[in-house]
Amino acid sequence: MKLFTRAALLLAAVLLPACGGGDAGEPATPQPGDLTVTLATPNTDGALLVFITGPGVAAVQPAAPGVVVRSRTQGTATTVAVFGTLGAGPLLRVSVPDVRQAKQYAAVVREAADLQNAPRATLAGYALEVDR
Amino acid sequence: MTARRIRRVHAAVLALAAAALAAGAFVPARVPDETRTGWMSVVWQTRGVGNELAAVRLYLMDEAGQGTEVAAPAGLLAAQGGPLRLNGRRVTVTGDLLPASGARRVPLLRARAIAPAPGPRFNLTMASVEGPQRYVLILCRFSDRPDADPRPKSTYQQWMGSAYPGLDHYWRENSEGRVGITTSIVGPFVLPRPESAYVPPGESADLGALFRDCTGAADPTVDFSQFSGVLLQFNSPLDNFSWGGWWTRALDGPSRHWPATWMADWATLATYAHESGHALGLPHSSGPYGKTYDSKWDVMSGGRSFDPVAGTWTPPHTIAYHKDMLGWIPAARKFEAQPGATATFELARDALPSADGYQVAELPIPGGSGAFYTLETRRYAGYDGTTRLPGEGVVIHRVDPNDGATPAKVVDADDNGDPNDAGAIWVPGETFTDLATGVQVSVLAATATGYTVRVSTGGTLPVAIDSVLAPGVMGTAYAVPVAPGLTGGSWTVVAGELPRGLALSADGVLTGVPAEDGSFRFTVSVVQAGGFATRDLRLEVTRPQLAEAAVLDQLLGAGTLTADQARFLDLQGNANGKVDVGDVRAWLQAEGIL
How far B476 CA sits from the closest chain A CA (Å)? Predict the structure, then answer.
């Protein structure tokens, strides 16, 4: 019995780690799709320059009608110029290889210009949130 | 019609004609080719406290003091140098004569020819008005209103006085003590006839009769040989005009050409100043709009303000041109520019001038007409008080000596109908340029009592300039000499606008970075020792052609634009010294992409 008990405890010790961890039960294949970048702002602007970090950005699309987007991605850095009448709310849709990795993406506003193309002197109150 | 009825009609016509003759309704026939000789007297007819000009009348006075009004075409007067040049001259006038009749108390000679006549010219020239003048003011009442004068005699004594506000004081200040008018007031005297005999209803006043009877009423008590001018004050509105000028009559001696005024009952001190100005030999001045009384710069136009303390309207100074006419500005204090000249000097104020600087500047206008510009400084002083002058600054008049009625007219740059506003007041930093004549005046700075001005007159400086300059590109440095090969000149832009970012240097190089595109037309002037010239120029500024991808790459981090192209992007955007998202948005909008 003593030998049997020891064998059982050893097996349990080996198996228990295999049952630990939250993702241990998900499929291993990535889920390509779009993340949404949402703007918080005290202003209405005519143009924004947005900087996104995160891997594998394939495309950037406007999230609202009437908005024009031009972007350039180099490595994990994507710079996006956004033109239109831009207020608070969904701003961009970013195509990524695995939306489950949303937490790996971040975005900030680098420049803002008002509707007369004058630069904003401060970007206080501007924030971007990236989520699925 | 029967023979009897015909006879009756003839009889009726003859009876009517006889009745008309008997009633004095006969109109004397026009006399063709009438020739009369005498001295020409000019009289100015003005109305109201604003001294509105109604007419300039010419009278030919014979040895007996009888006047014939002369109506002459402007061209005929201009050939004689204008009406003021005729004043006091002995001339022979030929034309059609309308004899006096009915309401026309003075014969009218419609002149076809005026010729100098032998005989003395009265000693009254523009330059002769100096020294103390003794005038007599005669208060005359019409026989049908013999009881009152328009104002107490003491008021007229104050108005004629040697302290402010008095006529003697006023002209002494204008002439810097060269001329004073000491006036003795006599009367009242009652005229032998009623007002209607001198001022027929609806007709002009009979100046000759008024002068004859008013001086005649005073003659027993006045020794006219002691006086050089006659002011007549009547106790009615006359024909709603006051009059000033000259009249010829023998009074206590041989015939003389008298400075004279005929004052209506509403006359104020300003009216006296105005009419006595005419008596001194002054014409009117005005703005450039054909309104004789619209200039507040001159007692000889509409200049006056009400002085509540004095209780009457008071005048500003007369303009420098008029002072020069009367010989009140010494030659050493009068700047007379030569053609093609440039000079900088101080221009002292017109009223109570300081000892420094010129008091008037004359700038000839090319073309042979004899016209010129005058410059004068108007600053608050003396009778040029704050309530009388429209402002302080340099005032420019264009003077045409051949315009006998109003030779001097204010130059009003904004052409807005008001010669008393900022458009006529030239202050430091402002430049007047007459492109047509090449005359330029810059007010450089204020001095204690005047202004420093720089003047240039049209010369023959040959300046070769292409009217279309080498094109520029927005954002790209530009440096093009306007007139290659010309050195030593001083250049300025006198009209039009340069593109933003460009400036004309004093040595004539257009430099800078154009910050806007388009076609720009402007006028430059150059002044140098040999003369003055202006040129109209055109400069085209274009936008550089850029690809959208290159513009976006410049923003997004892979820029390939040149420094000039990047500067262009910034300049056509928000011009904050760098290319940003606002600049790119502006470019996309300009290109029609957004």
Answer: 22
The total of structural domains in chain B comes to 5
Residue B534 sits in the same domain as residue B585: no
For the full predicted model, state whether its pTM sits above 0.80.
Answer: no
How many whole angstroms separate alpha carbon A6 and alpha carbon B381? 123
The full 3-state SS of B449-493, as one line of letters, equals CEEEEEEECCCCCCCCCCCECCCEECCCCEEEECCCCCCCCEEEE
CA distance B556 to chain A (A): 6
**Least confident stretch, B98-112, B129-143, B182-196, B318-332:** B98-112
Residue B489 Cα, gap to closest chain A Cα (Å): 42
Give the Cα separation of B165 and B314 in Å (integer).
7
**Which residues of chain B neighbour A48 with C-beta distances below 8 Å?**
581
Strand partners, B244: B44, B261
**Closest Cα partner for B397 from B363, B430, B369?**
B363
Q: List chain A residues with pLDDT less than 50.
A: 1-5, 7-25
Omega of the bond leading into B188 within 30 degrees of 0 (cis): yes
pLDDT tens-digit series, residues B188-241 = 999 999 999 999 888 888 999 999 999 999 999 999 999 999 999 999 999 888
B6 in a structural domain: no
Domain span at residue B108 reads 31-116
CATH of the domain at B505: 2.60.40.10
By a Cβ cutoff of 8 Å, what residues of chain A touch chain B?
A: 46-49, 68, 70-72, 74, 79, 81, 83, 111-114, 117-119
B288-309 residue pLDDT tens: 998 878 899 999 998 888 999 9
Provide the mean pLDDT of chain B: 86
Residues B274, B135: one domain?
yes
